[in-house]
Amino acid sequence: MHYSSSDNYLWNTIDSLGKGATGGVFKGRHMKTGNSVAIKVFNTETNSFWRELDILKNTPMHDNIVKFISMETELSSKRRVIIMELCTGGSLYNIIDHPENGFGLSEDELMSVIRDVVSGLNHLHLQKGAGMLLFYIATSQAPSSGQEFTS
């Protein structure tokens, strides 16, 4: 097996929940409680890492936004990892890409997905302000200090 760990969490690097440009997300467990979590391991410590950490840590809890648990360091590589709530329903992409949804979601399912996405975005909007959120979405980077925002 290919295990990695931090001070409090253990995960199998084969048990991948997803991979992206900045790293991978794995299913893990708290070593003492056995609680399941999602562990995001970044390839390198970039601005993207710090931005995601800032948003997760400073956004009040909401049903449609993954919950931040902690930030730790992978013991072997010394890479920082973000420990988050494990969401077992799959990604929006996986739901849409599922063969049974080949011709689209039903109207009720689509409305439910849209309602949840808008609710989460609205929560972020209220926390960071419209201009900040739109800037993040449009550019995928944090604005520089003193930069003007418009919504």
Automatic annotation (TrEMBL):
Keyword Ligase included in the entry's annotation: no
PROSITE patterns, sorted: PROTEIN_KINASE_ATP, PROTEIN_KINASE_DOM
Domain spans labelled Protein kinase: 11-151
Localization per Swiss-Prot or TrEMBL: Cytoplasm
InterPro entries attached to this UniProt entry: IKK, Kinase-like_dom_sf, Prot_kinase_dom, Protein_kinase_ATP_BS
Alphabetic keyword roster: ATP-binding, Cytoplasm, Kinase, Nucleotide-binding, Serine/threonine-protein kinase, Transferase
One annotated Gene Ontology cellular component of this protein: cytoplasm
Gene3D superfamilies on file: Phosphorylase Kinase, domain 1, Transferase(Phosphotransferase) domain 1
GO MF, one annotated term: ATP binding
Major subcellular site: cytoplasm
Keyword Lipoprotein (UniProt): no
Chain sites annotated for binding ATP: 40
Matching PANTHER family: FI05319P (PTHR22969:SF15), IKB KINASE (PTHR22969)
Protein name: Protein kinase domain-containing protein
